[in-house]
Write a structure and sequence with these properties.
By secondary structure, this protein is α/β, with parallel strands linked by helices. The protein contains 15 helices and 13 strands.
Length: about 550
């Protein structure tokens, strides 16, 4: 309850125990075993901050925080508590609070979304439960996307980038380092598993604008933003990662404001032990940094868990306002946890803190807050105030109706799929495929062209060879004809020569014979008379023809 300008939590021996608004951004802790009253304490704080005009974020794990949008109901038990605390004299009334319901899956409230780029490689590695090597590859993926101007909006973009890195592994290795395809494949399987859990609906536009959490309702009350985590908490990794992302968004988005009279927002982190379960050193360092520095941006973070041991000492040391409900010590480990929780308080000499811690009843708590100087007060045993709004759940249709009535519903109700890495790489793949097809067609055309040129060349060569054969054949024919003509002419010439020789021989023979006969006649007549003349003439003719034949051969 917001009373006298303070966050009134409970009462201790008639003393009002309050958190000073100017110290509320120094963070806080609500711890205690199951059933000890942590949820009621959370509601009282949320209502009080809302009354102070401070917006609040709550993670509703069991669904019983939804009643804040309805006024509380009167009962004998409530009347007794009101009288016990004197609330009737302090303006206590049953009332509802301005409430906006959100749901990552978009069923129990306004769809709450972000993008892969806004989640970042560190939180995404946690969400995918990657090992150190795979986390390094995720960091490289974001670097490549930044270098190449590829927006990472949804899981399609993430898978497209992984495939892009795998396909071009050798080229990227030279600039960004070796990335085994096995590790890339393991990340791809993690993304597919994440989609199966429903995260696909979370990673898309329009992403949450943190400024929408800083609204006020009627009367200037701070808006209570309730995230429906009934389904989300079934996956502890998803639950813790998404809440840590929201806290990181506040850290990175809000400007520095220094010390304020009251916080700009209070962020309640329920089931906080899930946040620190099996996380890397890098992520633990990131959480410590956020918790340490976010208070200067006017945001107070309150962790709700069963035992302070669920939170690392480095973070626990920064939680100035502590509300510790009862702890049970059933085992030696529980005993050590109780002692550690008791030792974390500033000792009150009026009682034994450890013994008191195990003896607290439901609705009671050990409380230590920061005073005006920022120094923790002595621990006190307190009874927690009752809430002013309805305790417990509301019907599902009423929750949905409240979401539909929000002025933010129309802004976030429909997902938007902008052009991002998937579309760009898909287009690039199509262009590359088309280029490859064109290259293949060009190669085929060039092959056909060369084949046609070779065919034409062969035909031309064959034609030239045919013509050459015909030319040679014609030359041979002409040569043969020429040779035949020459031989014919030679034969005719020989015949003519033989004829001439024969004619000459005949003429000569006749002449020589005549001459020889005349010579023989003369010689024969001289020697032998008439007989000698005849014999001499015949011998002279024969001898003359013989001599002439020798010369005319």
């Amino acid at each position: 309850m917001f009373y006298d300008g303070k966050i009134w939590i409970g009462e201790s021996d008639g003393e009002k125990i309050c958190i000073l608004p100017q110290m509320a951004n120094r963070h806080g802790l609500i711890a205690g075993a199951t059933g000890t009253g942590k949820t009621i304490t959370l509601k009282v704080l949320a209502e009080s901050f809302s009354d102070a005009g401070v917006p609040v974020f709550l993670a509703d794990v069991k669904g019983d925080l939804a009643g804040m949008c309805r006024p509380g109901t009167d009962s004998e038990d409530m009347q007794e508590r009101i009288r016990r605390f004197g609330l009737d004299k302090c303006g206590f009334t049953y009332q509802s609070y301005p409430t906006t319901f959100w749901d990552i899956f978009g069923r129990g409230g306004i769809p709450l979304r972000t993008t892969i780029s806004e989640m970042g490689p560190l939180l995404l590695s946690k969400l995918l439960e990657l090992n150190e090597t795979q986390s390094d590859i995720m960091t490289i993926l974001f670097k490549i996307a930044d270098d190449e101007g590829l927006l990472l909006t949804d899981t399609k973009d993430l898978k497209a980038m992984l495939q892009y890195m795998s396909d071009n592994n050798a080229e990227f290795a030279a600039q960004y380092g070796n990335m085994s395809k096995q590790s890339i494949g393991a990340i791809m399987r993690g993304v597919v598993a994440l989609e199966a859990q429903g995260a696909e609906a979370f990673f898309t536009e329009p992403g949450l604008a943190i400024s929408d959490w800083f609204q006020t309702g009627l009367g200037g009350k701070g808006m209570i933003n309730v995230l429906d985590c009934r389904e989300l908490v079934n996956s502890s990794v998803m639950y813790s990662t998404f809440l840590l992302w929201m806290l990181s968004e506040l850290f990175t988005t809000l400007p520095e404001v220094g010390d304020l009279d009251r916080p700009r927002m209070i962020f309640f982190f329920d089931e906080a032990h899930l946040l620190f379960k099996d996380i890397s050193k890098a992520l633990r360092d990131k959480i410590e940094q956020v918790v340490k520095l976010i208070r200067s941006k006017g945001v107070g973070v309150y962790f709700i868990t069963q035992s302070p041991k669920d939170i690392p000492d480095s973070v626990l040391a920064q939680l100035g306002n502590k509300i510790q409900h009862a702890l049970r010590a059933y085992t030696p480990s529980d005993e050590r946890a109780v002692k550690a929780a008791a030792d974390s308080f500033r000792t009150n000499p009026a009682f034994n803190t450890k013994e008191a811690l195990t003896a607290l009843g439901t609705g009671e708590a050990l409380i230590s807050v920061l005073d005006e100087e920022g120094i923790p007060t002595m621990v006190k045993i307190c009874r927690i105030l009752p809430p002013q709004s309805k305790m417990g759940q509301i019907p599902e249709e009423e929750r949905v109706q409240e979401a539909l009535m929000s002025n933010l519903y129309l802004k976030y109700k429909d997902p938007v799929d902008p052009e991002s890495a998937y579309e760009i790489l898909e287009r690039l793949n199509l262009q590359q495929a088309e280029a490859a097809a064109q290259a293949k067609r060009a190669a085929e055309e060039e092959k056909n062209r060369l084949k046609e040129e070779a065919r034409l060349q062969r035909e031309q060569q064959a034609e030239e060879q045919r013509k050459e054969r015909e030319r040679l054949k014609e030359e041979q024919r002409l040569l043969r004809e020429e040779q035949k003509e020459t031989e014919r002419l030679e034969r005719e010439a020989a015949k003519e020569e033989a004829r001439k020789k024969q004619a000459m021989k005949t003429v000569a023979s006749t002449a020589i014979g005549t001459v020889g006969r005349e010579i023989g006649n003369t010689i024969g007549k001289t020697v032998g008379g008439t007989f000698g003349k005849r014999l001499g003439g015949n011998l002279g003719a024969s001898l003359g023809r013989s001599i002439l034949g020798t010369f005319l051969k």
